[in-house]
Prior knowledge:
The protein is α/β, with parallel strands linked by helices. The protein has 19 helices and seven strands.
Amino acid sequence: MVAGSVCALACALRMVHIRTTYDIFIDEVTYTRLARNLATGRGVTLGGKPFDLHPPAVIGLFGLVAGLTSRVPQLLQTLLDLRYVTAAFGALCCVGAYLLVRRAAPELAALAAALILAVDPFTIHFDSRVLLEAPTQAATVASIGFLAGLVGAHPGRSRNVIVGASGLTAAVALCSKETFGLALAITILLVIATGWVVRRTVAAAVLAIAVMGWTVQVVATGLTSGFGPWWSAQTGGFARLIGTSQPTGFNSPHTHVSLTSRIFANASTEGSTYLLLVFGAVAALWVLIRTWRGRHQEWPGDDAARVEVLVATWTVGSLAYLGYATLFGTIEEQMYYICLLPCVAVLAVVIGRRWGSVSAALKAVTIIGLGCVLVFDVGVWTGLRTTTDNAYLRLLAWSAHGLPDGSVVAATDETSQFLLHHVTIGQWNTLPEFRDHGVAYVIVSTTLTDQGYGLASPALLSALQHRAPLAFSADDVTMGQLDVFDVRALDGVRS
């Protein structure tokens, strides 16, 4: 009953105005194209080539849903439909957090954790788009939850079933997005190494099942699309992981945006998220240090204490990956999604288990702090859900009458090329190229240009702003400004 209420609330918070609150993101277009290709029998392909950058589990889920809506010819409509799928999985993550915390702490602590995640702006931001994060995190928290169910379980058929469930859900996470799988694998390895949560052989069995599931996926992928493309994609992904290749991300020399700049830029909407990450990390380290110091005594203690150690281990495992990625690897904002749920869970468990023994002053501070977080998050949610962030939808509406059929358009933003169908699209980004290809209109995102993403350079944007008529412009929260310039009479384009 309670879990159902948590799920309903989290779903509602995500699905209100889900089509217009967040503008279309290029990764959403990519996953929607993959889903449509899979649904129409072309396999997990992109541009006619196998797509092996990420494992296919969530893409397969998207493809299944896209198959049910295959009657819809427009990619945009399928994309907006798929947003409801990720929102539902985001709600399941909140339910998973509630059930996990409930195994080690009182009901009120579990409800607080679920409520924070249900309304957290950062979480909703990624739950409300067609991305891999929410379904993968749902599988991850399910695996940790089943692992928690093994605490205190006696040998027998029931325990074997739970081992299988934990291993299979871990395999799903590994087969959905490698970064989540890596954090989960680190967690299970730490559980095996310490022996603080469950018997080492039990944790090893969970890991073995997960690895076998991942191996089956790799073999299936190789047999269907070839091991060569898979190996090429995986080596490229590994290079991004360790930081030897950084085409995108905060550490990339090609972009003009840093982690600190994004933190300051997002503080007004995600400041509470940053606090939860910091305090969750501190709580997790405190639990593990305390456990290490007491390892020669009668430790671990009761089952609740073991689950607390498990949640802390999961938090530290996630932070270990994120810490390396932040310092050396290819890191982007959505990767912090990996640690937020465990950080919130460990905070709830640590506070909930000790609530009866803390002073009245500390209780008051905690209640006030939780109240401030919730008020802040509800305020941000209200602001976002009452704001339209749909530059691309407005572009499409305008293009129906603003772009003559057959017009040659240079799309420097990388997204509009997949949405506009009655024009000729090319990815040209210099005035000579515009002239050589007969370009009539140029689409530019000011935010992507400033950040070093997309194809347009700041010099090109400046030239267009000073010399070309503005045919269309949409101010937008995400895009900054999405502009279409008419370059038909621009010197150097028409000679």
